[in-house]
Design brief:
The complex is a heterodimer of chains A (511) and B (505).
Chain A lengths: L2 H6 L6 H19 L9 H19 L5 E3 L4 E3 L1 H22 L10 H20 L3 H19 L6 H32 L4 H8 L8 H19 L7 H8 L2 H27 L10 H4 L1 H19 L5 H22 L4 H30 L10 H4 L1 H15 L5 H15 L5 H27 L11 H19 L2 H10 L20
Antiparallel strand pairs in A: 1-2
Helix pairs in contact in A: 2-3, 2-5, 3-4, 3-5, 4-5, 4-11, 4-15, 5-6, 5-11, 6-7, 6-11, 7-8, 7-9, 7-10, 8-11, 9-11, 10-14, 11-14, 11-15, 13-14, 13-19, 14-15, 14-18, 14-19, 15-17, 15-18, 15-20, 17-19, 17-20, 18-20
Chain B lengths: L4 H7 L1 H9 L6 H25 L8 E15 L2 E13 L1 H20 L7 H20 L3 H22 L4 H30 L4 H9 L2 H6 L4 H18 L7 H9 L2 H26 L1 H6 L1 H21 L3 H22 L2 H32 L10 H4 L1 H14 L6 H16 L1 H26 L14 H19 L2 H18 L2
Antiparallel strand pairs in B: 1-2
Helix pairs in contact in B: 1-3, 1-5, 2-3, 2-5, 3-4, 3-5, 4-5, 4-12, 4-16, 4-21, 4-22, 5-6, 5-12, 6-7, 7-10, 7-11, 8-12, 10-12, 11-15, 12-15, 12-16, 12-22, 14-15, 14-20, 15-16, 15-19, 15-20, 16-18, 16-19, 16-21, 16-22, 18-20, 18-21, 19-20, 19-21
Classes of the chains: A mainly alpha (511), B mainly alpha (505).
Subcellular location (chain B): Cell membrane; Membrane
Main location (chain B): membrane
Organism (chain B): Fictibacillus arsenicus
Chain lengths: 511, 505
């Protein structure tokens, strides 16, 4: 590749990524040259400005048509824009949590914290835009490696170390499984580009290898469930969530999970959509029972195990496993609503979960404990914390006039919409939702019905802003979901997702 | 003005919430009075709605419709949108229930004077609950109905769990889980109906399902699908009503919740179950409903007898009344199972009548509890001597409950059974046994309290003036309906006729 070809790419496609990369680099350099004792807190403003800048860049790209650069390995389409907005928004809120996180041994690593967060974000954004197995995998690894370090950021905290170690080991295993599956896909089709793979999947020669193809699907899918913390690779979540610093837990449960769904959609839907099954036309139809069982198992494991948790972070880990199970349901039904359902649910989930983690961070810091009893009498002590927390919990439980309800309603629409309707999957989802009432309402009961003698809880202004933003968004999206849906329908054309533009025009030469 | 009237009514309790926000939480007196005022306001608007409502008018009145949420789905036949509207309206049936809600809410707010702590959050939740109830009866599509239905659950959970008696949390959880099961089934049914038909509107759904089977086949709606949906709906509302064997949560709630909340719960919330069976069951799936009539009637009789038997053996007056509610809801089912004019009218009359009677009785039990600190039958005796008014009203309420002619309970029981005798005489004959039992357990409980040897109560004052208002208003309403039932039946006529037309008489 010579300089001319390099310059011929329409690099503006990557503007948001460049902003994040630039800011992350800048942060690491500044951190290196700053005095050791100097406070790293102001760096958060720089990081936040970077994320905001990237968000602004994406909004400016909204009208751009599908473009791809670097020989069709990197593309900007509606799908990537829609999900990058989620990733950026999530990271922005997590940054506020991170800058307010107080622990003795976090302060010396605060600079690292910020640029690791941005690096992880960069990886996630790359995943959203990749159209090639290689870039997809590089993005995934960038996100993973940065997350591993962040989990262990509290160097003198045993739990945090344990968390990081477990995360690395299980993450490594998951990566190996994913790669193993991908290698079959590559072997069978001879391509790494997702669209070329999809093309080659229609090769009649492949009909003979239906079984291998199925195997490849099962393995890759299982490997990719790691990031979204769904069965069978969900076991890491409780331990990692418990030990990691709260902002990192929030990041893992929201941004990293979103990225996990992004890669699932990108890889599974594009490459396998035309793949032949063992004895039918479509592989995706044949694997429906498999995905269904994974979704059901995830919901059951998450919701049932959460019932027994006393540790609020562990409880939220299982809750987040359960939520992943809900979001897997649209994968089974594969209706055309797939993208907006998942997008909307993840948006709702972003607000309710980060909101809840904001309160968890404030309370665990003040009470020096992770036990559910830190919520005792919160309504008396600090009603302005208890009321938003109630909204978040109601939303997680899927009670009306919250965003979570609309999200769940949409998932039901997807599950029951196409023939044959998946009644039993809907029933499992509803039944496990009932289980979730018990543990979500248990927190509510502790806040409202028990008396606690703890002091009034003070909330830093940044955290209060995040809290207010999340609470208001949770309610507004619950009352007027059309705000988000219209935005989605108005700006994103999901057909672009399947549009292979390699054949049309690879590099535009108009600069 | 009329264009917005119903929405103003539904959300009018929010004004109370708004005002209460600015009142200091320790100002007990203002909060309590604002609590009453906050429910008087919706009552006033409900009366305006009543005056705007054309008596005997057919179909829906005062309708409002706004587009709310729209999903766009790409299917093989092209892009199909699944719109969800905000649509409200009233017919005779919902008008009656809205009035009942507004009235009972005011009286329950007055009864809430006995609440001892945290008045501010109590009344805020109370208002939200009222909003939910008004919305449930005014909603004209499944989505809206479900939302308001759930809105009633959450405040109830708090009201029971925070202001109830000894085992309040257990009661709150059992309320939540049982009703959660009900609403879970409802949600699945509603979404399934929506996805099959593309609409959530009650009337459109009823119309769609009345199409000939050949046209329904194109929508993949089979007879089995209809039957499955109906059974699921019946089960969901059976939890709410409640129908044996799904009643245990309701007894627990009636015993543990504060009296004012039990008034609301037994007076209105249980009626949502009956309303649901009428509107969704009989209204949308008339053919299937008819073929299930015997089962429904059977459950009605079981409810009636089972509730009555257990009421007979209870030693706690709250439990007596709770089982009596189970028993009386059986009569609603009996009337519905008959499926003819008498039966239907009887069922709806029973809904209204029991709403008033149980609100009255639970209010009086609350008053008694406040005076004695107990609700055991053995703790009372000779109340009539020291508190003649309380005892008198209590006796009157008891007589209404056992169906004395001249009171509302008589009309409804009489008509429900008249209807059933026409259709299933054997079942009806067995059911009448329940009426005898009712007389026995009601008199046993009432007489044990009012007459007999006088027991020492730590505070033996008669009904205070603020307590007399709910007692007398409810009693007056019970007598009014008993003496002049035509007022109610005129209002209900067009709605019931439409449903009966579907059921084929």
């Amino acid at each position: 590749m010579d300089l001319d070809t390099l310059l011929s790419f329409k690099w503006s496609v990557m503007a948001p990524e460049f902003i994040i990369l630039g800011v992350a680099t800048l942060l690491s350099v500044i951190d290196l040259f700053m005095k050791k004792e100097a406070s790293r807190k102001p760096l958060a403003w720089l990081a936040g400005a970077g994320v905001l800048g990237a968000l602004a860049a994406i909004f400016m790209q909204l009208d751009t048509e599908v473009t791809s650069i670097l020989y069709d390995t990197y593309r900007l389409d509606s799908f990537s824009k829609a999900f990058k907005i989620l990733l950026l928004l999530g990271t922005l809120l997590v940054l506020v949590l991170a800058s307010n996180y107080k622990k003795e041994d976090i302060d010396e690593n605060r600079g690292e914290f910020y640029y690791l967060l941005l690096s992880a974000l960069l990886g996630a954004m790359m995943m959203a835009s990749s159209a090639d197995l290689i870039t997809l995998f590089v993005g995934l690894e960038l996100l993973s490696l940065a997350s591993y370090i962040m989990a262990g950021l509290e160097r003198r905290n045993k739990r945090s170390n344990e968390s990081a170690f477990k995360y690395v080991v299980s993450g490594g295993i998951a990566t190996a499984i994913t790669l193993f599956g991908m290698s079959y896909v590559f072997g069978l089709t001879g391509e790494t580009n997702l669209f070329l793979i999809a093309q080659n999947m229609q090769d009649p020669e492949l009909l003979k290898h239906g079984f291998l193809l199925m195997f490849a699907f099962l393995i890759t899918f299982a490997g990719l469930t790691f990031k979204i913390a769904a069965a069978p690779l969900h076991m890491w979540a409780p331990d990692v969530y418990e030990g990691a610093p709260v902002p990192v837990t929030a990041f893992l449960s929201v941004v990293s999970k979103t990225a996990g769904f992004v890669i699932l959609l990108r890889f599974i839907i594009i490459t396998f959509i035309a793949a032949p099954g063992i004895d039918s036309e479509s592989l995706l139809l044949e694997v429906q029972p498999y995905v269904m069982i994974l979704a059901a198992t995830t919901m059951i494991i998450g919701n049932v195990t959460a019932l027994r948790q006393r540790n609020i972070k562990r409880m939220f880990a299982y809750s987040s496993i359960a939520q992943a199970g809900y979001i897997l349901v649209p994968f089974v039904s594969n209706s055309s609503l797939l993208f907006e359902l998942i997008w909307f649910y993840l948006l709702a989930y972003l607000f309710m979960n980060i909101g809840a983690f904001t309160i968890i961070q404030v309370l665990t810091a003040q009470e020096k404990s992770n036990d559910i009893s830190i919520f005792r009498g919160l309504f008396k002590r600090s009603p302005w914390l208890a009321v938003p927390m109630t909204f978040f919990l109601l939303s997680l439980a899927g009670i009306p006039i919250t965003a979570g309800f609309v999200g769940k309603f949409g998932i039901f629409m997807g599950a029951l919409g196409l023939e044959p309707a998946h009644y039993w999957l809907a029933a499992v989802m509803m039944a496990t939702t009932l289980f979730s009432y018990v543990y979500y309402f248990n927190v509510i009961a502790v806040m409202f019905f028990r008396d606690g003698e703890g002091a009034k809880v003070s909330v830093p202004s940044g955290m209060a802003a995040v809290l207010a933003f999340c609470a208001v968004s949770t309610i507004i999206l619950g009352v007027m979901p059309d705000l988000a849906l219209d935005f989605f329908y108005g700006n994103f054309d999901i057909n672009e997702f399947f549009m292979n533009i390699e054949a049309v025009d690879t590099h535009t030469h108009d600069h | 003005m009329n264009a917005w009237l119903l929405s103003i009514l539904i959300f009018s309790p929010l004004l109370g919430v708004l005002v209460l926000m600015f009142v200091p939480s320790n100002d007990e007196k203002s909060i309590k009075w604002l609590g009453v005022l906050g429910t008087l306001f919706p009552l006033g608007i409900a009366l305006v709605v009543l005056s705007a409502f054309k008596m005997g008018g057919e179909g829906l009145q005062l309708t409002e419709k706004f587009s709310w949420i729209s999903y766009e789905v790409f299917q093989s036949k092209g892009q199909v949108s699944y719109p969800i509207f905000y649509e409200v309206g009233v017919n005779g049936l919902s008008m009656v229930l809205i009035l009942l809600t507004a009235v009972v809410s005011v009286l329950a707010a007055i009864a809430s004077f006995s609440i001892k702590q945290n008045w501010k959050s109590y009344f805020i939740l109370f208002f939200l609950l009222e909003m939910g109830m008004l919305g449930v009866f005014a909603a004209q599509n499944l989505f809206l109905f479900f939302i308001f239905f759930e809105i009633t659950l959450i405040p109830m959970f708090f009201l029971i769990g925070r202001w109830g008696y000894l085992e309040k949390e257990k009661a709150a959880y059992s309320f939540l889980i049982y009703n959660g099961v009900g609403s879970a089934i409802l949600l699945i049914v509603f979404v399934a109906l929506f996805m099959k038909t593309g609409t959530m509107n009650f009337e459109q759904l009823a119309y769609t399902f009345s199409l000939p089977q050949a046209e329904l086949n194109q929508l993949f709606i089979t007879k089995g699908f209809k039957m499955g949906m109906l059974i699921a709906l019946l089960v969901a509302f059976a939890v709410k009503l409640p129908v044996f064997p799904l009643h245990s949560w309701m007894v627990r709630v009636h015993v543990q919740a504060p009296p004012a909340i039990v008034m609301i719960h037994s007076g209105i919330l249980l009626k949502i179950g009956a309303y649901g069976v009428i509107v969704f069951g009989a209204g949308m799936f008339p053919d299937q409903f008819k073929s299930l009539a015997f089962v429904i009637g059977l459950f009605g009789v079981i409810n009636l007898l089972y509730g009555a038997f257990l009421a007979l053996t209870q030693t706690d007056v709250k439990r007596v009344l709770a089982y009596s509610s189970v028993s009386h809801m059986g009569i609603v089912l009996i009337g519905l199972a008959a499926g003819n004019e008498f039966g239907m009218t009887g069922a709806v009359f029973q809904v209204v009548s029991h709403g008033l009677i149980s609100a009255l009785l639970f209010f009086l039990v609350g008053a008694l509890y406040e005076r004695s600190g107990s609700s055991e039958l053995s703790a009372f005796g000779g109340v009539a001597k020291r508190m003649p008014i309380l005892a008198g009203v209590f006796l009157a309420g008891g007589l209404a409950s056992l169906g004395l002619p001249g009171m509302s309970g008589f009309i409804s029981e009489f008509m429900a059974f008249l209807g059933l005798f026409e259709k299933m005489p054997v079942l009806a004959a067995v059911g009448t046994l329940g009426l005898i039992l009712t007389a026995v357990y009601v008199l046993r409980a009432v007489l044990a309290i009012t007459f007999g040897a006088e027991k020492e109560l730590h505070e033996a004052r008669d009904l205070t003036s603020s307590e007399r208002v709910p007692a007398f208003v409810l009693l007056a309403a019970i007598l009014f309906i008993g003496i002049y039932p035509a007022w109610l039946s005129d209002m209900l006529r067009p709605t019931l006729d439409a449903i009966l037309l579907g059921l084929g008489g």
